[in-house]
Amino acid sequence: MNSPIVTLTTDWGLNDFFVGKFKGRLYSMLPDVRIVDISHEIPPFDLKAAYFVVKNACLEYPEGTIHIIDVNSSDTQDSPSVVVKYKGQFFICTDNGLPMALFGGQEKEMVVIDRVFWDSNFFTFTAYDYFCKVAAMIVKGATMQEVGYTVEESEMKQMFVWSTNVKDDGLTAYVAYIDNYGNVDLNLSYEEFEMYRKGRPFEMSVHDAKLTEVSKGYEKRDASSRRLDKLTLTVSSAGCLQLAIYGQSTEQLFGLKINENIEIKFLG
């Protein structure tokens, strides 16, 4: 594979040496590798945030791309390291529920890594000791069976991701992700919303604000507008319904939190 692409999605942060140490080893193993940082700012151990980021970023890459996901990773008997091959891409991560949240029910190939030896007797940096070597093996042509043994979905850990509660006269969605601008993505895609809505008028309740239309983009409001009048409902680049305030943080102004429920009522 010429100039292979390896992406990184981690909860390492940028204040420590982890990113630099990992990249140094990967470049030493694969001098022509192209490393793409998806994010190193996943909140520590937050698998739901990792799910949202990987789902909305990694599948844009070409076949042959290797994605290393090191969030809440610790290689143990109960949570082994795995490789998932999906649509020609490879995802190296831990069986901590994230693989099934991302790929459960989809056509894929999965193996538990057991053909790769650790370099140390300590298991505190799984990606450095383990994932680097697996990525190098895949780039050099190793098959999935040369990396590990096949594992079935029924043997993998499950992770609950948001499920929209739908009724005849409305639904309950949830705050799934808050970006760096304080914009709030719901777990509900625009396509799903339109399917449930069936052309009916709606009213979305966000604390003391009421929203009745989906805007095409971020609506500029007069600086003197009331807080309630600044809130916009639109569709994010992830395709989800998004709550936003132009130039301000919806998260801060409305005090919204991950997993908070948002009620939508269908009228008529």
What does this structure look like?
It is a single chain. The protein has 268 residues and is of the alpha+beta class. Helix 1 packs parallel to helix 4. The longest helix has 14 residues.
Topology readout:
Blueprint (H helix, E strand, L loop, with lengths): L4 E6 L7 H12 L4 E6 L7 H11 L8 E5 L10 E6 L2 E6 L3 H6 L5 E5 L12 H14 L4 H4 E3 L14 E3 L2 E9 L5 E6 H8 L4 E5 L2 E3 L15 H4 L1 E4 L4 E5 L5 H5 L6 E6 L2
Parallel strand pairs: 1-2, 1-3, 3-5
Antiparallel strand pairs: 4-5, 4-6, 6-7, 8-9, 9-10, 9-15, 10-14, 11-12, 11-15, 13-14
Give the distance, in angstroms, between the N- and C-terminal Cα atoms. 57 Å
**Helix percentage:** 10-25%
Shape: elongated
Radius of gyration (CA) equals: 21 Å
Attribute tags:
268 residues, alpha+beta, 7-stranded mixed beta sheet, 24% helix, elongated
How would you summarize what this structure contains?
The chain is α+β, with helices and mostly antiparallel strands. The protein contains eight helices and 15 strands.
